[in-house]
Amino acid sequence: MNVLVIGDSCKDVFTYGDIERISPEAPIPVFKPTHTEENDGMAKNVANNVEALDMHIHTVTNKNSITKIRFVENRSSQMVLRVDEHDHCERINSGLLEGLVKNKFKKPPFGFDSQREDHYDAIIISDYCKGFLEEEDIQHICENNNNVFVDTKKKLGQWIKEADFIKINELEYQKNHEMLSDNGFDGKLIVTLGSKGCRYKGKEFPVKEVPVKDVSGAGDTFIAGLVRGYLDTQDIESAIGFAQECTTHVVQKHGVATVTLKELEGGES
Q1: pLDDT at residue 14, rounded to an integer
Q2: Cα 19 to chain center, whole Å?
């Protein structure tokens, strides 16, 4: 399976620490750091999840480093503060974007992580709205490729009508409801509902309750699992079930994490 992930990415930094008292200077906790962990985030986390599910991955993303620093209390695993640095990136190169028309590349352009195969089985657009992709860029990709899965923070419009599937959370759905309901998007929309699962074409897909340690990056795991499930079965409802199984595993881990097929099969933890 050959998958392209395109979108803005960041470095996720998790600083863990202890909170034992409130500051005498202001009604805020005193945070004592104990250790720090780092990993790739946003589109690169999607790519890591795709790769963990045994798919061949290509990534097109920004070069400058957006950094999200999370301060997490050790005992409760609760995030107490997030600091975002360099929260914007340059737009994708127009020449590179033109090359994303299906089967146009003769050799891999600058920005790809590895040698390109003859085609993409699927494309994931992971758009965190940091400047790498504009609406017309996403429209171009959707109009010229098949099996395009979109996860975007932008307000939706007709520019996204050629996407095959759109992952959106309930809050984003409510903000876009009028436009979506008037323009026949129901067959494309997969609405995630947090701990309640997700909804597709009016049908709800619940998830089992599990002890949650961290939901950071869970949406990235979901869309990677959705693509793997869809490419395996060509059935979106089966793909949703697989994506939810992936997400259920990953929220039981600390930080931004991935899940492997071996874990899903019970071969490791």
Answers
A1: 92
A2: 31
